[in-house]
Amino acid sequence: MDSGLKKNTVHFFSEFQEVVNFAQSLGISFLLIVPENFDEQKLKEDLRILKDTYGRRLADFEEESILQDFGAGKSFKVYVFETREDFEIEALMGKEWDMKERVMGLREEFIFLERRARGLEKVDAVFERVQGPEEFWKEEDYAKCKEFCVKRLKELVKQRRQEKTKLIYYVNLGPSFQQEREYQKAMEFYFKAFDIVRSIYSEKMPALLFTPLSNLAGVYISMGQWEKVRESSLKVLEVAKLNYGEANSKTIRQYGNLAFVHQILGERQKAQEYWINAIDIVESSEIKMPTEVLMLYWNLGQACHRAGEFQNVLGYQLKALEIRKEMFGEGDIQIANFYREIAKTCKLLERYQEVFEYSEKAAEIIKNISGEVSPDLIHLYHDLAMISQNNMQDDQQAIEYHFKALEIQKSLFGETNPKTASSYSHLGAIYISLGEGQKALNCHMKVLHINISLYGEIHPAVLDSHRQLAITYDGLPQPEKALEHGLRILEINKALKGETYRDTMNSHYQLALSYENMQQYQKGIEHRLRILEINIAVHGGNPSRRD
């Protein structure tokens, strides 16, 4: 029904019919609050239409005291209306829940309150402010929301009010139980709400169903009932298409939700169809929905990634990147995250030059936003170093990036930190590959000292440090020093795992080889005999050979 209200009167009048419809559907009267200095001439015609269309106007008056809570001492004019008994309820055009939230918050414009009595002559006796379930939702106090709704439902039963007046409380009880993981109770109240809606709208699918149906799908997700999730999600999509149209953000998001459901059910082709269909709808529409399209492309890319279609992944990621750049510009922190994800895809495609370029772009954005000393740069610098070393054969560049990561780690975490030790270890490995044994030795010695200070002498990290030092000394060559660390490796293995542990026996074997290379054959024999003794003790008379 067209109320005839002027479109450009004031903000809240542009959607006033929906407010009144919503109020009437819940069986409540409402009042309109306007600042005292508001130009009533502009409202005169609209007020007449409201009176003729929606019911009798109970009063016009100025009363400061009744509105103290709302106006902080300001004066208001109040127009009070009561919906007619025979007023027909219409579809709320998809705005009822948003309208409810806005109405409850617009204290200097208007608010509708629950009627407490009928037939009273004085307006201030007819209305009183009632805290609604919305207030408890804002505070995330679901227990109080449940308590409030249950109390109101009991009052409505005593008053013999129509079943439709219970709708708002059923709708709020559902998610309240859902938040507290009482899923069966949540479903009970959702289905009660659906019964009321069906009694009002018959076979129609009003927008009023959108939120509770979406919440019901959430309940089924929590319960792992994915076939039920699909069934509910299809109904939500139908409601969205009928009430909002296809080219609407709620509808498009629902296409995306269904795509995820099909993905989880293993119906990959069906999932991609929903994503692609949603993209086609948006791109053929005059309505711009960049956020929705961006997420559709990105999620479609993720789906292709799971299917191993990495070339398609890259294409969708690049489209999402361009949309993000148009929305927020090149310097947005999320652009840096996009570059990092695109770099990972390029790595899977073995396009290492592009991996390097996208990683550098991400690092540049992070530096501009967070400064040179940012923890987000550490991993990027390590990645750039590894790409430089392993895929671009540029060891010097790799060293530069490792040093950049090292300096940040020392600034943020200090010298004695596992992350700092990791950077020294990476540098030591590169120096070994370059044949710069002394530099590698310095790095690995620092790692050893850090690990001992962190964990003590007996720890797997300390064991690994001794192992790296033994390898480094052996390559210099300094066999005596390598032997010292080999003996320390043996002691730590015995302390950690015991004498018969495989790594302990392997330590004996490596020591035997070291002594033999130094022509200390008697010492080598002693370690080989120790291996034999352990095998006999463990396996009996048929020990397995270790050499």
Task: Explain how this protein is built.
The structure is a single chain. It is built from 25 helices and 3 strands. With 547 residues, it is mainly α. Among the domains are: 1-130, no CATH class; 498-547. Helix 8 (167-179) runs parallel beside helix 10, helix 15 (310-328) runs antiparallel to helix 16 and helix 19 packs antiparallel against helix 20. The longest helix is centred in the middle third of the chain and has 19 residues, at 183-201. The N and C termini lie far apart (93 Å).
What would the keywords be for this entry?
547 residues, mainly alpha, three-stranded antiparallel beta sheet, 25 helices, 3 strands, 68% helix, disordered N terminus, disordered C terminus
Describe, in short, the structure shown.
This protein is mostly helical.
Structural class: mainly alpha
**Largest sheet: number of strands, sense, barrel closure:** 3 strands, antiparallel
The Cα radius of gyration reads 36 Å
Outline: elongated
pLDDT below 50 for ≥5 consecutive residues: which ranges? 1-36, 49-131, 543-547
Strand order of the largest sheet: 1-3-2
Task: Please provide the ordered H/E string of secondary-structure elements.
Answer: HEHEHEHHHHHHHHHHHHHHHHHHHHHH
Share of β-strand residues: under 5%
User: How much helix, percentage-wise, in residues?
Assistant: 55-70%
Head-to-tail CA distance between termini: 93 Å
Number of strands: 3
Mean pLDDT over the residues: 75
Count of discrete alpha- or pi-helical segments spanning 4 or more residues: 25
